Amino acid sequence: MGAIKLVWGNVSALLGQVLGVWNAPPWLRWSTQRTRQVTSASGAALKRHPRLSAALAAGVVAVGVAGYHGHAWWKARPKPVEVSLAVNGPAITDFANGGLPQGVVVSFNESVAPLSAVGKAVEAGISVTPPVAGSWKWLDDRRLAFEPKSDWPVGVDFKATMARELFAPQMRLATYDFAFSSAPFAAKVRKAEFYQDPVNPAVKKGVFELNFSHPVSPPELEKRIELRLADQAEGVLGVGRETTAFTISYDKLKLNAYVHSAQLAVPKEATQLTMAVDKGVVAQLGGKGSGHKLSQSITVPGQYGLGINDVNALVVTNERFEPEHVLVINTSQLVHERELAKNVSAWVLPLKNPSQKPEEQGEEPYPWSDPKEITDKLLAVSTQLVLTPVPSERDHTQTHSFKLRADVGRIVYVQIEPKFKSFGGYLMRDRAQRFVTMPPYPPELRILSEGALLPM
């Protein structure tokens, strides 16, 4: 023990030389001294009065036990059931079908209405901000409904407060306030197309159809519409900006607007006609306007706006209820059926590619698909088909059909020369080339004499 004290003394002396000696401040020395005095006095008092000390200790324990059990009782006590609610509506009025303004229904998850109030109007106890004319009624013991006298204002947020006296006295709601909103005004572009008059092909224009959630205010709409072709001048700071003139019409209820551009000339190359509707368009009832800008573009065909959209081989049933192959050609513009018939040709291509050695090809037929492989030499060894036009209801059409005969599975090369014009005067720029595979005939059953069946 002496050795330990000696070592500790040496270490303390060394630390004192390095770190210096620290002396406690007067307040800390005084606090330590008073604590020792109080502890010493308390200990002496407890020794002089053992019964009092035991009673104090027992009291402290009793208070602790009582506090614990009181907290447990408070947590376990029955709590009042709070009823929740949900608000439905109001839905937007069905203007197109002459609908009436839609109401608001407040639904509760418990039976809350006094039995004497079920099915009756509510005269007082509900306030709505901003005020709106109408009447409240208990539909049943869980549903409270509001029916407006007139159509809702557009895009308004409402807050409602219900009095406690409105409900059965034993019921308690989680909240007596709720909120709902009327439908906002909305606008959209329903349809956009390039239109060519079917009688007078010189009449070409863009047509845009706008749809609105509420009857629109025409003056507010028309001052926000602009039509522009892609090649029209932008101008500088709005000066010299070119636009395309338009006319506009509406349906009876002002729920739809139809924007027609002025007559358009045929440009040399295809271009875009864009309709823009600035935000802020409002309903006839007023309220907050549309919150975003609308924009829609259509393609205005150029001089070479005639093209071949699709070429297919189909199986159809003829007037004798027999299946046969038909070649169907769809054009991008109206074309006279005789003009197309004079410029379309078809060949059944060989099963093997004559430009390749037989050992280089597999057993399967050659997969013709590249127009660069079609040469005069190849067509000379191919079988040209006879195409018989199928008359359509109109002379000018976009769908042209031709009967042809070719074996199922064979690849047919179709060639359309650009030597004709469409109804509107458009031209094809290049020769069109397509490959089609002859489809199989669908299976069917035929009834023969005496009820026998012949599968085909």
Can you walk through the features of this model?
This protein has 456 residues and is of the alpha+beta class. The strands form 8 sheets. A 5-stranded antiparallel sheet has the order 2-3-7-6-4, with no helix packed on it. The chain contains 6 helices and 27 strands.
How much of the polypeptide forms β-strand, as a percent range? 25-35%
Question: Helical stretch count?
Answer: 6
The outline comes out as elongated
- How many whole angstroms does the radius of gyration measure? 46 Å
Looking across the biggest beta sheet, what order are the strands in?
2-3-7-6-4
E-strand count:
27
Point out poorly predicted stretches: none
Instruction: Specify the biggest β-sheet.
Output: 5 strands, antiparallel
Helix proportion range? 10-25%
> What's the overall average pLDDT, rounded?
87
- CA distance, first residue to last residue: 117 Å
Which structural class do you get from the secondary structure elements? alpha+beta
Note the main attributes of this structure.
456 residues, 33% strand, alpha+beta, elongated, 5-stranded antiparallel β-sheet, 4-stranded antiparallel β-sheet, 6 helices
Question: What's this, in brief?
Answer:
With 456 residues, the chain is of the alpha+beta class.
Question: SSE layout and pairings?
Answer:
Blueprint: H1 2-19, H2 26-48, H3 50-76, E1 82-83, E2 85-88, E3 104-108, E4 121-122, E5 126-129, E6 134-138, E7 143-148, E8 157-162, E9 172-173, E10 177-181, E11 187-196, E12 204-212, H4 218-222, E13 225-229, E14 246-250, E15 256-261, E16 271-277, E17 294-300, E18 308-317, E19 323-336, H5 337-341, E20 344-348, H6 376-380, E21 383-384, E22 388-390, E23 396-403, E24 411-416, E25 432-437, E26 445-447, E27 453-455
Parallel strand pairs: 1-9
Antiparallel strand pairs: 2-3, 3-7, 4-6, 5-8, 6-7, 8-10, 11-12, 12-15, 13-16, 14-15, 16-17, 18-19, 19-23, 20-21, 20-24, 22-23, 24-25, 26-27
